[in-house]
Design brief:
- The protein has 2 domains: 88 residues, Immunoglobulin-like, CATH 2.60.40; 76 residues, Immunoglobulins (Immunoglobulin-like, Sandwich), CATH 2.60.40.10.
- It is 0% helix and 49% strand.
- It has no helices and 15 strands.
- The strands form 4 sheets. It has a 5-stranded antiparallel β-sheet, with no helix packed on it. It has a 4-stranded antiparallel β-sheet with strand order 9-10-13-12, with no helix packed on it.
- It is rod-shaped and about 75 Å long.
- The model has no long low-confidence stretch (mean pLDDT 91).
- This is MOR1B protein.
- Keywords: Disulfide bond, Glycoprotein, Membrane, Transmembrane, Transmembrane helix.
- It is a single-pass membrane protein.
Amino acid sequence: VGDSSVLDCFLKPNMTMVAWKISPKVGGPCILGYRPDTDKTERTNCSKNMNWKFKPEQNPALEIQHVGIAQEGTYTCEVVAVDGNFHKVYHLTVLVPPRPRLYCDDHGSPVCEAAAGKPPAQVLWVLESNPTPEKKGHDNGTVTVLSRFTACSTNVTNTTCMVFHPTGNWNQSIAC
């Protein structure tokens, strides 16, 4: 999320048309098209952050700037040329890094939270514990994972929470 993404397509000699057909998971379809014979580009229902990376006749790659969850979906590049029709399909999945936090609750127990990540983060404790993480889904497709540390012995004074996610890992220690 937030980065730019470039999706490549075929560059064929004697192209008669190239089009990106975009079907996002949310919202309606979008089409970016180009015809070399008229040197015209057309766009239908595409957000302003989606456009040709270069001139389509030189390289028909699609650039998505500031990728967000709304851009998740299927992206199909279709090239029509003298020697046939060519399709390239991408399934774009957007990763959202969670916001990790470690704190002590009102009962003096450590709580580890990985807020609004996509996919949900994995939360683990370094010392022995048998937590059952709570997961709360949000309307935008992200998930918050909350884990309370439950010690098997009473001599635990300091513990470490670890958060694992495809966008990066995090750990922090606390004494409650």
